[in-house]
Design brief:
single chain, about 750 residues, 6-stranded mixed β-sheet, 32 helices, binds adenosine-5'-triphosphate, DNA binding, DNA_helicase_UvrD/REP
């Protein structure tokens, strides 16, 4: 290390040490504030206690944020032409005199750290990346942007992409990391794009779509904190493993109150985990199901053609076709949801029945009060109740769908063809069975819209709760103004924390339990996989249409997924959405991309693969074996990455067999999706499960079969070939697809 570098490091170390000192002071101070509030104990009035809890919640959240930024607290420095200097980090810090010590990476003044170039330096002369381990500064990399103003020594140390390449070359841990220190200019533009409207981010594999979407969530929460903390941010990923893969990123950026979910989890109380056959998924995902569900609901409102007799102890009541029709058309005309329209239907029939009963009782001149009393008596008669329930039953979405899927007759009435009926037909759920699939969830959601709440009582309670909430907010506003906290805390959030006797719920937690929650912003990742029905469920959750949609049309694997963004979004937005493209592949080395781009031509001749940012010098290879079950294990064993991750991607029909073979021969190998697959040194999975993930090394098994196994075979193979950050191999038994002839043949 040269003397000047050592001097630089020592200077930076001093500054960084002071930042950590300040961080420690703030942690101690906030902890003290929290303890002070908690020490007041559960005494005082209900009001005092609830105020105490509100402050405790706020201090606890602030403390969590201060602890979240321990690693690489400060990672950058900007030197400006006017000699000012800013340090950039994970959060903003000031000293007690309000002097800025550290700038939050999301603040507008930090933007040149990501955007300045020698051609457009934005007033910056030097951008410095600081590398730290723990609290120790281990190195610096400089980008010198004002080339004219450089000394000879500075020119010699010009090192543009060192920080990025160092980050990309690191071994994978099974969890996505944040990239605040090395966000690239094209990514930064997307991250800081305005909140309103729908932004579609299209980009090939490894271009950072996922990581950019997550940083955008952190940026939006910082910039529009009040609006978004109240309404919440929802991030939708393709499956639970993927959600697990990305879940660390936002907390590492100090943001914990974001809901990460999959489409299969969007309906509270249901986990869509069962696998559908591709055929069933296509039927369930089709927009035609809107009509099918509507007809299924209408069929449950169908009244009998023949008159109905209701036998009571003293007499028998009769309902004829005309009465049914009149009651039904009144209910339908009310335009209420099924469960609410039931009240209209029932009222009409009960009035008719009450008049009949009055005649039977010889009391045809009843006054209003007597009439109402008799009607109530009849309503509670078991035969009457049973008859009304049969005619127009209360229905939950689950009951409606179970009723539909378990009866070909009902499916036919709802408009499904015989082939579609065969694809969807099911046995009723057994106790404890995971009956629902991810594709069912949007259908449950659709049904919930048409069926409405189960009863008026529930609705009344909800209205009452809303009124109470508004009262609490009004009170909270007064308290905040009196205590001078109005500028740092929102009255609505404060009010929510005021409910001392209830458990404090974050916005994300409240939103997760409420099907009708309207989010402030929704981010959809791997968005190409969503079916038409899934889009409806997602759009329903974002009435303001403030969304970020990221994906790659070329990687669509689901047969119900998208072939074009325009077609998917048109029903909701016409052409009111903006598109940004990412064009650089940060994951897959050039050697591997060369192979993958040949496969991309099979997906679509006009599609262009993203440019790889780096080369590794390692050639991808192919090996022919005779017996996969016997030969796969040893090949996998040879490829294991010390301290890193290897995945074996297999045709989905072979997952169980080959997974067992590898597990028997390679210690620590696991099969299938799930959290274990992320942590294991070796995992075996299908393309669908590997989507969105990345590994140090990838072995693709039987590519020919992957190509043939689904209608989106070429996309699947493209996805499989682009998961590796370093090494790629292919193992096959029969022949190698023509598009893979670029691979180096390697003998066993
Ligand atoms: N600016 C950056 N600095 C450091 N690493 C980056 C940067 N941009 C992307 N990466 C890394 O590149 C890899 C790919 O990113 P990501 O998974 O977000 O890509 P993607 O576009 O979602 O890929 P795919 O479509 O294949 O799922 C990740 O390891 C990510 O951390």
């Amino acid at each position: 290390m040269s003397e000047s570098t050592a001097g630089e490091l020592a200077r930076e170390q001093k500054y960084v040490a002071a930042l950590y000192e300040r961080l420690d002071v703030l942690r101690v101070r906030t902890r003290g504030q929290l303890d002070g509030v908690l020490a007041q104990g559960a005494t005082g009035t209900h009001q005092n206690r609830s105020e105490r809890d509100s402050f405790a919640g706020m201090y606890a959240q602030r403390l969590a944020r201060l602890w979240a930024v321990e690693n690489s607290l400060c990672f950058g420095r900007l030197d400006h032409a006017d000699e000012t200097r800013l340090y950039i980090g994970r959060l903003g810090l000031s000293d007690d005199d309000q002097q800025r010590l550290l700038i939050d990476w999301r603040a507008p003044v930090a933007q040149p750290f990501y955007r300045a170039t020698p051609a457009a330096p934005m007033g910056v002369t030097r951008r410095r990346h600081l590398h730290t381990r723990g609290r120790v500064v281990t190195g610096v990399d400089d980008d010198l942007l004002d080339l004219d103003g450089l000394s000879e020594a500075d020119r010699a140390s010009l090192n543009g992409e060192a920080a990025l390449l160092a980050a990309l070359g690191e071994k994978r841990t099974g969890r996505m990391r944040d990239i605040v220190a090395t966000i690239q200019s094209e990514q930064d533009k997307i991250i800081r794009s305005e909140l309103n409207g729908v932004l579609v981010v299209q980009g090939g594999p490894g271009t950072g779509k996922t990581v950019v979407a997550l940083h955008r969530a952190a940026y939006l929460l910082y910039t529009y904190r009040e609006r978004l903390e109240r309404r919440g941010v929802l991030i939708i990923g393709p499956n639970p493993t993927f959600v697990r893969y990305i879940e660390q990123v936002l907390p590492s950026l100090g943001e914990t109150d974001v809901l990460l979910s999959t489409v299969g989890e969007l309906y509270p109380g249901v986990k869509g985990t069962r696998q559908d056959t591709p055929g069933a998924a296509v039927v369930k995902g089709s927009i035609r199901m809107v009509d099918v569900i509507a007809r299924a609901v209408r069929e449950r409102q169908r009244v009998p053609r023949k008159p109905l007799e209701i036998k009571l102890d003293k007499f028998t009541l009769k309902l004829d076709r005309q009465t049914f029709d009149a009651a039904r058309s009144r209910a339908v005309r009310s335009r209420k949801a099924h469960n609410q329209a039931r009240a209209v239907f029932v009222r009409h029939l009960l009035n008719v029945l009450t008049r009949q009963a009055a005649r039977h009782l010889g009391r045809s001149m009843l006054d209003d009060a007597d009439f109402a009393e008799l009607r109530e008596d009849l309503r509670t008669e078991e035969p009457v109740r049973a008859a009304l329930n049969r005619l127009w039953p209360y229905l939950t979405p689950q009951q409606l769908l179970i009723g539909l899927y378990t009866s070909k007759e009902r499916m036919a009435e709802a408009g499904l063809s015989p082939e579609e009926q065969t694809l969807l037909l099911r046995e009723p759920p057994r106790p404890g069975e995971s009956w629902w699939s991810a594709a069912d969830v949007p259908l449950l959601d659709e049904a919930a819209e048409l069926l409405g709440e189960i009863d008026e009582g529930v609705l009344r309670a909800a209205r009452r709760a809303e009124q109470e909430r508004e009262d609490r907010i009004a009170y909270a506003r007064e308290v905040l103004e009196l205590t001078g906290m109005a500028d740092i805390m929102d009255a609505e959030r404060f009010a929510e924390r005021q409910q001392a006797d209830e458990v404090y719920l974050t916005t994300a937690e409240r939103a997760a339990g409420d099907r009708t929650w309207a989010y402030g912003h929704v981010i959809v990742d791997e968005a190409q996989e969503l079916s038409e029905m899934a889009w409806r469920a997602v759009m329903r959750r974002c009435p303001t249409r403030s969304m970020t949609i990221v994906g790659d049309i070329a990687q669509t694997g689901s047969a119900a997924g998208a072939a074009s963004w325009g077609r998917v979004l048109e029903p909701y937005l016409q052409d009111r959405w903006r598109e940004a493209a990412l064009s650089v592949n940060y994951r897959t080395p050039a050697e591997l991309m060369e192979v993958a781009s040949r496969v991309l031509e099979l997906v679509g001749p006009d599609l262009k693969a993203p440019e790889s940012v780096r080369e590794t010098g390692e050639r991808p290879w192919a090996t022919r074996v005779d017996d996969l079950a016997a030969d796969l294990g040893p090949v996998v064993q040879d490829e294991v990455v010390e301290g890193g991750r290897l995945v074996v991607i297999v045709p989905s029909s072979e997952e169980a067999r080959l997974g067992a073979a590898v597990a028997a021969q390679v210690p620590g190998a696991v099969t299938g999706a799930g959290p274990a697959a992320l942590d294991a040194p070796v995992s075996v999975m299908s393309v669908a499960d590997a989507k969105g993930l990345e590994f140090d090394a990838v072995i693709v098994v039987e590519p020919e079969r992957i190509l043939r196994e689904s209608s989106r075979g070429p996309s699947d193979l493209y996805v499989a070939l682009t998961r590796a950050t370093r090494r790629l191999g292919v193992i096959y038994t029969g022949g190698l697809p023509a598009v893979l002839t670029l691979l180096d043949q390697r003998a066993r």
